[in-house]
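Task: complex structure prediction.
Instruction: return structure tokens for all chains below.
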Amino acid sequence: MTPPFQKVALIGLGLIAGSMAHAMREQGLAERISGHARSAATRETAAEIGLVDEVTETAAEAVRDADLVVLAVPVGAMAEVAAEIAPHLAPGAILTDVGSVKQAVIDAVAPHVPAGVHFIPGHPLAGTEHSGPRSGFATLFRNRWWLLTPLPDTDPAALDRLESLIRAMGANVDTMEPPHHDLVLAVTSHAPHLIAYTMVGVADHLRRVTESEVIRYSAAGFRDFTRIAASDPTMWRDVFLHNKEATLDILGRFAEELFVLQRAIRMGDGQHLHDYFTRTRAIRRGIIEAGQDTAAPDFGRSAKAD
Amino acid sequence: MTPPFQKVALIGLGLIAGSMAHAMREQGLAERISGHARSAATRETAAEIGLVDEVTETAAEAVRDADLVVLAVPVGAMAEVAAEIAPHLAPGAILTDVGSVKQAVIDAVAPHVPAGVHFIPGHPLAGTEHSGPRSGFATLFRNRWWLLTPLPDTDPAALDRLESLIRAMGANVDTMEPPHHDLVLAVTSHAPHLIAYTMVGVADHLRRVTESEVIRYSAAGFRDFTRIAASDPTMWRDVFLHNKEATLDILGRFAEELFVLQRAIRMGDGQHLHDYFTRTRAIRRGIIEAGQDTAAPDFGRSAKAD
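Output:
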């Protein structure tokens, strides 16, 4: 069977692009994959492990004759990359991105896209706390959601083609308005990440006085926070700077709620706490029913590593 | 080989007590295990699945002739249970607990302990978001820390005996002053749990307007929060009410830090965010090196459930 894409160009060779390369190869979705990363060290590693068929010195080279171009760079780098590759995009090519924020990426990229190129912004809801060209794996997208935020003039045939590719990598596709995407992600991902970073920072201060006890005895809650807070600093800096309004809105609500619970602790209002904690349990059940996680005990992870 | 304990009494038959029963049976650590739970439904389930050798109607019956008694009830229930069992404790018995707070448990239990009974407060740093008599499993404690906070007059031989039992269940033992335990746990566990509960509550409000999108698209951060926030409401209510000072102290520091990061987002201070996020990565590495978690990608969990 002929692969659905002749040449896929991956701009940026981190966790997401690397996982796409693995998944597309495993499923035979691209005749050829070229890749470019700004960092020479990343390009070298990618070439060494054969992550893609061809590692190019420039982004422009990578996109030449590609029928699919994927921008997999931090959100803050999208504008520059788009400007650089725009004159080299093939007519009829699909251009997509994997940024965690959508409106800011559209504002940065759309003005550069030449007529005849189909720009369809996207965001795979998948990741780990690891980054770099060695961090990808073929199953990263399996059973995860991949949101697309097509523009009003998006060509339905191009959208179909991109959706088929994404489904072939194992993900589910949904479409959404860009600002709505940014609000939903602020609450499900961006605010939680900032909160996890903050808590780990607080522990860091305390750690200095307790000689690593905090690390040694990091129980349930804190371990999960540190995993979240170990994510790529550049990517997350850009997320917060480019989804500023929605993130600050959610963080404001969060601070209000937290103060109410803090007050309940201070006043000894056990009923309030119990009611609140009972309600949050139901949300967890909803997530398990929605298939976005399993009910398997969290702590199995460490047992498995024995 | 004769088991090290003749009769172990488990008061409370939830996740921790159930896991102890499984682990002690697997390792042959008790000749006989009796158990009691306040709820008739819990007692019925425990008897039905044969969790222990004998399920008793009262706590007093369970502890009769036991050479080890484990209080595995919510922190707020410790005083009442201690008062009830005290007259029935066998001379020379070891009495321990598994509460997440230590000073408050000591204040609640110690006044009831008769002379000749060795009260050694303890806290296994292990758990899942599940609770109840069916939730336990033998490997829960494997490679986890089990903190003991012996009192000034604790008998060294009794302490040795309890430590050996805990090690035989797979855990590592360390001892600590009770107030210090409560501070360390406030930062590694109690504050993170309250924060997770809060964030899930915020999402709950938003969920009402976005028709379950928040659940459907719950990415990395939020999923981890919901797992934490699904923990037993009664247990956690009691933790916060009984470790009030340390928890409020850490939450105060947390709010300060969060506001500084919120301000950096508002002002567009990318350098501050990047520096902060880079520092938190190092803490994560420390935890992996300390053996409290693995570097395996978090998202493997859902792939495994396919």
